[in-house]
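Quick one:
INPUT:
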């Protein structure tokens, strides 16, 4: 089985596509069409990092397992509000929070009460 593409590999591929778009635009004889093609390439360059993140996330998503858990309603509401404020799916926010928590192996495990306090604070900050 082959390893999934890393974010850096995805970004390199996107940058290669952008370079091809720019080269194609420079060969275009029609100045209006050439400018439109260059504008598109510049726009894509401006968002290449975000595009690479999204593609890498999609690749990683295909290799994930489902995990179902119960949380207090107040925490669910706070997570949904924070995700909405960040304009990302709640599941993506939860994955990010869990990944950060697991990476910090020295961090103590939070109690339910501590999580609820954090959720209330997040909720207050998002309203």
């Amino acid at each position: 089985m082959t390893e999934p593409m890393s974010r850096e590999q995805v970004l390199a591929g996107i940058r290669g596509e952008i370079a091809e778009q720019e080269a194609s635009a420079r060969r275009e004889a029609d100045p209006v069409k050439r400018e439109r093609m260059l504008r598109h390439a510049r726009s894509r360059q401006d968002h290449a990092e975000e595009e690479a993140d999204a593609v890498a996330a999609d690749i990683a998503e295909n290799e994930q397992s489902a995990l179902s858990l119960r949380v207090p309603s107040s925490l669910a509401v706070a997570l949904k509000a924070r995700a909405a404020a960040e304009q990302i799916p709640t599941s993506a926010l939860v994955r990010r929070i869990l990944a950060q928590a697991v990476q910090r192996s020295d961090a103590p495990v939070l109690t339910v009460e501590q999580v609820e306090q954090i959720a209330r604070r997040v909720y207050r900050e998002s309203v």
